[in-house]
Amino acid sequence: MRLLLGSLEKLVEVDRAKDREAKEAVNFRARLLGLIYEGLLEQWFEESGYEVKNRDVRRGLYRDPKEGDKKVAVDFILKRKSCGKRFIVEAKCWPSYNEGKFKILTLNTFKNLMRRKGRNGLKLFLRRDFLNKYTLDGKKFDGKILVWWDVKEEDVEAIKQQTGLSEIVELKTILKSETHKFRKRLEKYEKWTREFFQALKEKNMLLQRSH
Q1: By the 8 A CB rule, do 98 and 106 touch?
Q2: What is the pLDDT of residues 34-51, one digit of tens each?
Q3: Which of 58, 72, 91, 131 has the largest CB neighbor count within 10 A?
Q4: How many helices (H) and strands (E) does the chain have?
Q5: What is the pTM of this model?
Q6: Angle, helix 107-115 to helix 156-163, in steps of 10 degrees
């Protein structure tokens, strides 16, 4: 489980890379993290008091009388086990996105994201009125949760006020300090990866022997 040893930031944050080879390595690891982090999040939510009802939901509808209807994808539908409230989750794992310029969620990051052209799903999700206009199978939700790579703690409450978010989850902190909540899944991913690379190496060895 080398991903969680040493400095996680140095392994996946591209702006920390000092040369071309290091940058290539960081980009590879960041893409690998992009493949597995939703599975790790699913296990983390389950161990943190939620029931994961759906993943990668694309049929939800954002209705706006002025702008028209738009289908908006969300990453998770959760139900809190203690009270039955339902939440929608948008997870953005961007440790190397845009050369790391958006990896930390701050008030400035939020403002820059909302200034971007287009009516993309993230901008709609971050609107304060999103919960009033978004439905899935005709039903509304009790709250929305944003997962980001890193978060500036002193800006969290202000961002929540402006967006109507119920919670902002910092993925980096989860990976560094709450591994116990998804250790079995992480070990499974590690096993699958090891098997894959071992198969590639064995195939290469057979080809070399045949020549």
Answers
A1: no
A2: 999 999 999 999 999 999
A3: 72
A4: 8, 10
A5: 0.89
A6: 30
Give domain status of residue 63, yes or no.
yes
Quickly tell me which residue has 């953005």 as its tokens.
92
According to DSSP, the residues that pair with 150 across neighbouring strands are 104
For residue 128, CA distances in Å to 124, 125, 131 come to 9, 8, 8
Which amino acid is located at 155 in the chain? D
3-state secondary structure of 69: coil
Element (H, E) at 35: helix 20-46
* Separation of alpha carbons 47 and 30, rounded Å: 25
Residue 89 domain boundaries? 49-177
The answer to whether the beta carbons of residues 155 and 105 sit under 8 Å apart is yes
What are the structure tokens assigned to 196, written together? 């894959």
What CATH code is carried by the domain that includes residue 118?
A: 3.40.1350
Q: How many domains does the chain have?
A: 1
151 Rama sector, left if φ>0, alpha if ψ -120 to 50, beta otherwise: beta
Mean pLDDT, all residues of the chain: 90
Q: Which two tokens stand for residue 113?
A: 């994201």
Burial class (CB in 10 A: 0-12, 13-18, 19+), 80: middle
CB 144 within 8 A of CB 166: yes
Instruction: Identify whether 166 is part of a domain.
Output: yes
Q: Does residue 152 form part of some domain?
A: yes
Is 12 within a domain?
no
